[in-house]
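for the record, two folds in this file. i put them one after another cuz i was lazy. first one right below, seq on top, C-alpha cells after. the second one comes after a little note so u can tell where it starts
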Amino acid sequence: MKLLLLVLALCLVSMSHALPAQTHLEGVEVRVEALGEGYRAMCSIVEIETPTFKRDGKLLSNVISSVSIYSTVQDSLVSVSKLSVELWEQRYLSVGCLPLNQDYRVEIDIAYHPEGQLELCPKRLQISDLRNFINAKDEKEM
C-alpha cells in the first residue's frame, strides 16, 4: 500500500502544472490556422502532430490529449478540456481551437495508454506553454 501511494505521489508530481518551458519535443509538430476576421475569434485552429509509441510490441492506442488554459492577467485556471485525437498516417493528430494571445497560457498534456486501459503513469508528452513552443520553433526555422 505504501509503495502504491509513493508511485501515485510521483506521478502526480510529474503531472504538476509547474512544468519547465519546453522549446522542442522530438517528433512533435504544431500547425496553426488563424480564423478569418469575420469570425471575431479569440482562438486559432491548432493541430498537434505527435508520434506513435509501442510497449511490448503493441501500439499505445488509447491517446488522451488534454488542454489547460490559464489567464496570464489573473494568474488563474480558466478551462480544462480534451482535444479531439485521431490516428493519421502513423501519427496522432490532436486538434482544437485554442487562444494563443498574450492573455493566456496554454498547457498541453498527451497521455498514451494501452487500448482499453488507463495507466497510473502513462507515457506522456507535455508542453507547458504552447505559444512559446510555437514561437521557439518558428525562430529555430528562420
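(here's the note) second protein begins now
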Amino acid sequence: MFALKTSARVLRAIILALALLPMPTRGQDIQQALSSVVLVVARECASAQGAKAGSGFVWRDQTTVVTAFHVVTNCQSLSVRTSAGSVPAQLDRVLVDADLAMLRLASPLPAAPLNAAPSSPIAGDEVVVLGFPLNVPTPDSRFLRIVHATPNARRLRSLLPADAAGEIERAGIPSLDIEILRIDGNILPGHSGGPIVNRVGQVVGIGSGGLQSGAVGVGWAVSSRYLNGLPSGLAGRDAPAIAATRFGFRAPAPDQRFPQVTCGDLSVYRSHTATLAQLVASNDDPAGLNYLAQFAGYAPDELQQLRFTVYVEPGSGLSLVVPENTILFPDPQGCSASFVPNGGIFLRVMVGRAPNNQTAYQRFSPGFQPRHLQWVPYTPFSYTAPRTRPDGTEVYRHAGVSAPMGLGESFRTVIHRRETFGAIEVNNYALNPTLEFQCRNLGPAMMQVPNCTSYFQFKRFWAAMVLGAHLTTMPPI
C-alpha cells in the first residue's frame, strides 16, 4: 500500500512538473515553420514564360527544398532566396502527376526541415498557407479553412469545369485524379510550392494552382501524402517539358510587383482584366444583372465584350469590379476615383472588418451623394434586405435616384462574410435629362450631333460603372 501511495505521489509530481514547463503556442509553431519557407526563383525559362517565382520549403535536410513542379519546369537557372541571401539549386526529383519538385541546394540553409502531418485535415479544420504571394519581400502567413467533406470532393477533377479540366489534361500536369485540399480562403499567385500547415506547423498540403471563375479565384493544394514518393520520383534531368497553363499560381519575376492600394482596414491588389462575358460566371444575382444590362445602351455583342479591371482582397478573395484601367486612390474613407471632365461620376470603395452586414453598411453609409439633392431608393434595382447565400455570404445592393428625378443616380453593393466586408458605390450627378430628351427626339440623326454623341458615350460609361458594382462579389465556399 505504501509503495502504491508513493508511486501516486511521484506521478502527481511528474504531471505537475510537466504542466509547469513552457509549451510552444500555435503562433510559435507557425512562426518556426515560416522560417523554413523560401522564395524559389526560376530564370532562363523556355517559351514565353520568362522568369518565374514561387514558394518552397526546407524538407528532410537543410539542402533539400520542395516546391511546385510548374514553378521550375522548362527553366535552366534555379535558386532559392532567404533573408540570408540567394543559394543556387538544381532540379533533383519530380512527381509530375502531383506537380511536385525536389531541389538540391549548393549549400545548406540555416533552417529546420518541415515534417508532413501524420493525418489529413478534415472539413472545418483551420490551416495556414505560408509563402511569398504577390512577390512580397518576406514570407507571409494566411489562415484558411478546409471545406471538402467527401472523398470525391478531394479529387482535382471534382473542382474543375470541363474546359479547365481539358486544358490541364492536355498539358499533362497535374493529374486530374490527385488528392487535393479544397479550402475557404484565397491562394494567390506566388503561393505555388508553399506549404500549407496545421496548427502545430506540420505540412498538410502544398500550394499548386487555381482558376479564375468569373471575378473570383478558386485555389487548390496537393495533399502532403505525395511527399513520401518524391525522393524516388523521376530524376530531374529526365523531367518532361510541360506547357504552361493559366492555372498555376506562380508569380512573375520577383523584381515585379502587383499594384496594391489600402482601401480602409485592408488592402486590395490589381489582379486581372476580363470581359463581362467572363465575369458573369461568378455573379450571384443573374436576374438583377440582366435587368441592369437592358438599360446599359449597348448592343448585346458589344455588351459582352465590355472590359473590366478586378481588384482582389487577398485574405477573403473579395473581388471588386471596375471599368478597365480604373485606378483607385486611397482617401480617408477608403479608396476613390472620379471620372469625366467635371468630375460628375464618383466611385468609392471600402474594404474592412465588421461583425455583420448591417455594421458594414453603417460604416460605409457616408457617401458622395451631393447634399443639394434628395435621394430616394430605386426599387427595381434595390434589395429590401441583405440576401444570404448558401455559404453564409451576405449581399446587399441598393440603387438610388435623385429628387427631382433624372439629376442623379447611385448604385452600391455591400458584401460581407465572417468578419470581412467589401463595399463599392458609384454616383452620377452629371446627368442632363433635357439634353437626353432632345437627342432621343432626333432619332438616328442624333449620332451626327456632337453634344448627343458625347453625352451617350458618357451614359454608356456610367452603365459600365453600375455593372461593375453589381459584379463585385466573394468566391463561394
